[in-house]
From TrEMBL:
An MF annotation (GO) of this entry: oxidoreductase activity
InterPro entries xref list: FAD-bd (IPR002938), FAD/NAD-bd_sf (IPR036188), Geranylgeranyl_reductase (IPR050407)
This protein's record includes keyword Oxidoreductase: yes
Domain FAD-binding: 2-335
Keywords, comma-separated and alphabetical: Oxidoreductase
Protein name: NAD(P)/FAD-dependent oxidoreductase
Organism whose genome encodes this protein: Nocardia rhizosphaerae
Length: 415
């Protein structure tokens, strides 16, 4: 009998298993993959996410062999905001974009080294029940015999197609359609640094250095253009980069060499699912997903795995029952992620609303507010301050922003 079974051991499941095992709880973590294993991903870890890795003692391992990024180039049509957030309170002055073959292996190993039992190559075929409560899992390794494991709590950390979510019928209570598709691959001869560039015509390219002296280059367009794009993605990537930044397009053509197959991604819709019930919980993309445009998937997985681990520990140690801690987990996750969720849904459409156009355009004219912008992106500056009425009024006055272009300041952006 385990205290907790975690289904899925990537960027949400492994930290959860690790943290609970470090608290002395008996944890089983299973995944149908065997590691190292790849998965579609933006790779990007914000400073806030790196703070969790540092507190867990894993940052040095993740940073080894992965270039630090200390300057970001963010553009949206004709709005350009270059720079970087100030160092975080724990001294992190860079961001990293590790390959998932590297990052996920580090996390899985950390879970095992912390005392969690890890079974790789394990496919969950169903859940065990005790009345109305989930009581465990059944499944098998490869073609082996079916096995059953029981626990006080089963956590689905198994992504958007979570079998745990399906088995318990976790309802979606908030959502919106996905806007775009993404194609990405890895390139040699690309030394542009970090770029996140959205151009006219509803298209975007991004690039950042990763492991093995390679750069990830990704492009994004609206989903209705996916069929045409996939007929010749190399030409499509070149076309998008050329149109957004002809100079970088020329460099891609002259020195860039794609060294791996493309990874096409049609991401699922944005959603929040019911993420707890009798004997079960969901974390990571299993319970909450948003467009990858803002690169917050990994950081949010770390953040809410830590939150869930803290609350599960309270219940397992007898401080409070699951009937209190699990609703608190979902409320806190939703409240803390509200502004990021809203912002992501808006700007991932590849067109800015008049409100966001005004804010970002004015921010690009102010050196200190540009710092705040990158602090917002990094998870270090509170959204209620960045989008606060008093703060934006002061910004508009500082840069002498035309009154006619100042759209409504107070739009209800959540803190």
């Amino acid at each position: 009998m385990y205290d907790v079974i975690v289904v899925g051991t990537r960027v949400a499941g492994s930290p959860l298993a690790m943290l609970l095992a470090r608290q002395g709880h008996r944890v089983l973590a299973v995944d149908r993959a065997s590691f190292p294993s790849d998965t579609p991903s933006t790779h990007y870890i914000h400073q806030a996410g790196l703070g969790f890795l540092k507190s867990w003692g894993l940052l040095d391992a993740v940073a080894a062999g992965c270039p630090p990024i200390r300057h970001l180039n963010f553009t949206y049509t004709d709005i350009a905001i270059p720079g970087m957030a100030d160092p975080s309170a724990d001294g992190i002055d860079a961001v990293y974009c590790p390959r998932r073959t590297v990052l996920d292996k580090i996390l899985v190993d950390a879970a095992g080294e912390s005392g969690a039992e890890v079974i790789e190559g394990f496919t969950v075929t169903g859940l065990l029940r005790d009345g109305d409560s989930v009581a465990g899992i059944r499944g098998r390794v490869g073609d082996g015999p079916e096995q059953e494991f029981r626990a006080k709590l089963v956590v689905g950390a198994d992504g958007s197609n979570s079998i745990v979510a399906k088995e318990v019928g976790a309802a979606t209570y908030e959502g919106s359609p996905a806007a775009c598709f993404i194609y990405y691959s890895y390139y040699e001869g690309v030394d542009w640094g970090m770029h996140h560039r959205t151009g006219f015509g509803e298209q975007q390219f991004a690039s950042w250095p990763t492991n093995d002296d390679l750069a990830l280059v990704a492009v994004m367009r609206k989903r209705d253009r996916f069929r045409d794009f996939r007929t010749d993605p190399d030409a499509g990537v070149q076309e998008i980069v050329d149109q957004i930044d002809p100079e970088i397009g020329a460099r891609l053509r002259e020195t860039g060499k794609r060294v791996e197959p493309f990874r096409p991604m049609l991401y699922p819709d944005n959603y929040r699912r019911q993420s707890f019930g009798p004997g079960w919980a969901l974390v990571g993309d299993a319970g909450y997903h948003k467009d990858p445009f803002t690169g917050w998937g990994i950081t949010d997985a770390f953040k809410y795995s830590q939150l869930l681990a803290d609350l599960v520990h309270e219940s397992l140690s007898g401080a409070r029952p699951f009937a209190e801690t699990m609703p608190e987990y979902q409320r806190e996750r939703d409240a803390q992620s509200a502004s990021t969720y809203e912002l992501t849904q808006s700007i991932s459409e590849l067109t800015l609303t008049p409100y966001y156009d005004s804010v970002f355009r004015a921010a690009s004219m102010s050196e200190h507010y540009s710092k705040k912008f990158f602090g917002l992106i990094a998870g270090l500056y509170p959204p209620d301050k960045f989008f606060g009425e008093a703060e934006l009024t002061a910004l508009y006055e500082e840069v002498n922003f035309p009154v006619a272009d100042r759209h409504v300041v107070n739009t209800g952006v959540s803190a």
